[in-house]
User: Fold this.
Amino acid sequence: MRRLLLLALLLLGGGAAVAMNAERLLVFFFDPERVAPGDARLQEVEWQAPGGARLVLWVARPAPGRVSVLYFHGNAGNLATREARFRWFLDRGFGLVAMAYPGSSGSTGPLSSDAINADARALYDALPALIGTGKGTRAGTGAGTGAGTGTATGPARLPVALYGESLGTGVALELAAALPAGDAPAGVVLEAPYSSILDVGKRQYPLLAPYLHYLGDPWVSHDNIRHLTAPLLILHGTQDRTIPPDMGQALFDLAPGSDKRLLLVEGAGHTDVWQPAAKRALARFLARL
Assistant:
């Protein structure tokens, strides 16, 4: 209730500075605690982004012939709360680069949708160096915490699937839409995606709907998905009360390609989509990329 009252006061005030604070209040709920990965296959890396952010990444190389997953997490918890699903990727040979946004998991730097988008694009370009399968200098100094720029000599050319979870679906689609055709990802997975942050805000805070335009509209996924050329898998729970499944259906309908699938996970809510049927579909999708 306190968060809602503060949000109402900010939105009624209007203005650019107010909008930025309102975005942080409405969108970002990150856990700042930095916890080292418990799985020895995961390397923790501190990566210096060009925009000034110092991001904590969890990195693992793929097995031969397997795709790597660039993972954008949701707006709650931290990387450690997702370690079980990261292990799931590694157990099947998939590579992983999981990015902690500023304010999450020990990452620092400017926190806004624009800043996160810029960090995501720079990280995509640095993937060959970070994963160690392309040209460039690998970031990190060993199995523990490392530091480095991870700067590659060119765009990522290794097979990479973008994975967006909840909030991260907007980041993934924004990145995919910004990439040139020759540098498109091998595939895109969206778990509990939204049509736009503004649409979610109107559903969650209907009394404030007339004022939410002050927030702007970060991550307009219903526009970005129209430019998607990569294979697409959408996973959405039928009982999701946070981001209703009709938003996932709308994005599926707007995606222009024929290589796409929407799996509505019966009985799943917003945080328990990874049920057996979803994991089987995800494993098949990633294995063929």
